[in-house]
Every structure is written in structure tokens, then in C-alpha cells.
Amino acid sequence: MKVWKFAAIASMLLSSMLSILVCRDMFSGSRELSPLPSSPSSSRDSSSSSSSSSSSSSSSSSLRRSPRALQRHGSLLAQYSALLESYTEGEMRQLLSALVERYRQAVNSGGHELPLFPAGGRRKRARARHKPCELRELEVSVSELGLGYESDETVLFRYCSGTCEAAVRSYDLSLKSMRSRRKIRKEKIRARPCCRPLAYDDDVSFLDAYNRYYTVNELSAKECGCV
């Protein structure tokens, strides 16, 4: 697993811890800011005056306490951001290994926690890696073909894409074994079949930016296979 994956997971975990602490602090602060019940007075005039004065004092106290609460939340954010920046790669690895171990223990003990990595993404990547060798097409300009021509005309470029896992033979397995045992070192070889064109489409003709006429053969694939 790469370093950025460890950093992303650690940042998500620390962010969730920070949001929990901030919400708990805001809840406790809101309970502290709630006005206390006023004591009963002897007359209605005194009660009305005391209620008006208490409301004004409570509003002023809330206005006075709000910057303090913001400073407290800002200090928490600064502390956790500094904590995240202070982590080294080794400390992140230790933290993540401890979290993974706790997760495994919770799963083995019958817990129902959500998985760290959803299985849907893995299935999509597995399907993308195991697509069969097939013919695909893409509309591009002549200049994008990389053949040295300058033209704004577009062509339909057909190409081969996919894997050839089903086409692996004993030759490929033996060749891979020889490479792993360093019996074959210097030769440039490929120890597995590749998705390549078996036949090519018709020639493509076009005009370049200087009104010169060109014809290119074997540009697009017509049939694909594992070779």
C-alpha cells in the first residue's frame, strides 16, 4: 500500500475524531449558555423588570461567550492539524496497523462494523482488469495520431483492448518461470499473450493543413486476438 493511502486513511480517522470532539464541545457549551430559572419576586412589576434584565443579561452573556467558544473550537482544529502534520510515515504505519488489528478482532468477535474498504470498488477494478480482448473505437483528429501529420480532419481509430488470461499456455508459464529463475536475463521477451490486431482496417485518406493528400495504411484494427 502506498504512502498516500496511509495518509488519507489517517486523515479521515483524525477528522472523524475531531468532529466528534467539536460536536461534544458545542453541546456542552450550549448547555452552559442556557439561562438559569429566575427566582420568584414579590410583585409583578419587579418580576417583569427582572425578566427583562435577565433576558438582556443572558443575550449579552451569549454575545460575550460566543468568541470564547469560537476560540476554543479554533484551538482544537489547530491542535489536531498540528498533530496530523507531526506524524511520520512510520508512525502512520503503526497507527494503521493497530486500527486494522482492532478491526479484525472486532470482526472475529462477531461485530458488525462497516468494512474499511468497500467491496464494490474492488469488484469494479477486478472486472476492468479481466475484460476480454475486444475491438474498441475512438474518434480522434489526424494530428492526435502521432504520425507527424497536421490536419483538423477526424478519423475513427479502432484499437484492441483487454486481457488474455484465458490464452495463457504452457509456453508462457515456462517462460515466466525461466525469467524468475534468472535463466533468461538479457533478452527482451514477454511471458504472456497480448491483445493485438489480427487484421487491419481499410486505408485512411485525408487532407492536411496545407491541402496535401495523404493515405495511411494499417491504421485501425479490424479484428483482435491474443497473440
TrEMBL record:
Transmembrane feature ranges: none
GO BP terms, alphabetized: glial cell-derived neurotrophic factor receptor signaling pathway; nervous system development
Keyword Coiled coil among record annotations: no
Subcellular location: Secreted
An annotated GO cellular component: extracellular region
InterPro entries, sorted: Cystine-knot_cytokine (IPR029034), GDNF_fam (IPR043401), TGF-b_C (IPR001839)
GO molecular function, one term: growth factor activity
PROSITE patterns: TGF_BETA_2
SUPFAM superfamilies reported in the protein's UniProt record: Cystine-knot cytokines
Region of interest: Disordered: 33-66
Residues making up the signal peptide according to the UniProt record: 1-19
One Pfam family of this chain: TGF_beta
Biased composition (Low complexity): 33-64
Alphabetical keyword list: Disulfide bond, Growth factor, Secreted, Signal
Span of domain TGF-beta family profile: 122-227
Function: Growth factor that supports the survival of sympathetic neurons in culture. May regulate the development and maintenance of the CNS. Involved in the development of the neural crest. Might control the size of non-neuronal cell population such as haemopoietic cells. Acts by binding to its coreceptor, GFRA2, leading to autophosphorylation and activation of the RET receptor. Heparan sulfate-binding is required for signaling.
Family designation: Belongs to the TGF-beta family. GDNF subfamily.
Subunit relationships: Homodimer; disulfide-linked. Interacts with GFRA2 coreceptor and RET: forms a 2:2:2 ternary complex composed of NRTN ligand, GFRA2 and RET receptor. Also forms a 4:4:4 tetrameric complex composed of 4 copies of NRTN ligand, GFRA2 and RET receptor, which prevents endocytosis of RET.
Name of the featured protein: Neurturin
Species of the source: Geospiza parvula
